[in-house]
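Deliverable D4.2, example record:
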Amino acid sequence: MEILEKILKRDKMEHGKYFRRKLSLPFCENSPSREVLNLYGAPRVGKSVLARMTADYFKTPLILECKDPRITPFLANIMDALPAFIKEHCNDILILDDWDNLESLQESTLSLLNHIPISILVVSKLPIDHFTTFQLYGIDFEEYISFSHHPLELEHLFNSFLHDGTLLEISLLEEYKKDYRKQEIIQLIQCEKQGKHNILLSILPYMGHKVTPHHLYTQVKKSFSISKDTIYSLIKYYKDASLLFLLSKFDQSSAAKKLYFWDFSLSNAISYERNFSALFENMIFLELLKTKYHIYYGDTLEFLLLNNFHSSQHSYVGVLVAPFLSFEAILKRLKKVKKEFPFLSKVFVITLGLNQEGENEHILYRILPFWEFALGDKEW
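Output generated by the structure prediction step:
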């Protein structure tokens, strides 16, 4: 098929320089067996870039960008032609980027993929039930500093990360363009899913708050008329697409959830009002997402981490977010933590400068700046 010939020719010519993430997909192990993987995640976290990095490990990759307007009118014919084309050209991996754009073709394409005997990578916003899934988040602090071209002190890099956020493309822009680009990303999400009202824009100010879908509905409808069903379905979509996270309270699954976003810096791009505590808390939450812990919140503790979730031998670690507290105030907080969680014996206290270890109220504590926590071993 002529279009596929042009795509294959383009793929051979395009070998860009990518910022290497600290993770890789299983394909990179050069396994001779057929692998089928679904890479999914929120917008702009780098899914397409990681897919192309993966393609570099293969001799004859074929990459279909399902959102490319040059091929979207012909997608049905392209999919039908794939098996024969791949056999003829000896492609060793097929990458379907922007799978979500296939829409009505998804079911027939899934059936067709079963007859393609090579490794397949499907890139999407939402996880696909039929494949082994791999979720990609935005960059963390360790990756951010690895991309930095300036040999700055960690404190200075932290301040830059605070402003740039977790989307790599933002950190590569000129300073005056960064907030504008974040605003564009929010608007693009609106155009894709929401029609005329930007719900995401309306709920960003509630970052770090305890919320319920009904509470968000009552707040949003103050700005414009919208149905409860629409709000509920959008919140579910945002959650499924990892645009937002609703954190449960420990041992109280019906309690209000704490609201966090996939990029902690977006709220500062839409308002001059600042809530540093909420931003800092969201930043730490995103670092914790990449650990093996199950995460909860408590009344006296921002995060309670549960290890060995499926084992009878549970272990817990607390995370206290205290950017500006004095050492004495931290010790008082630990007393309250022990009262709420008498079984807890270890607590990280994340600050902006204090650095100390000790024991108080039979709790071992490690007080350390965010940058040391983010770059260090979170296992304890």
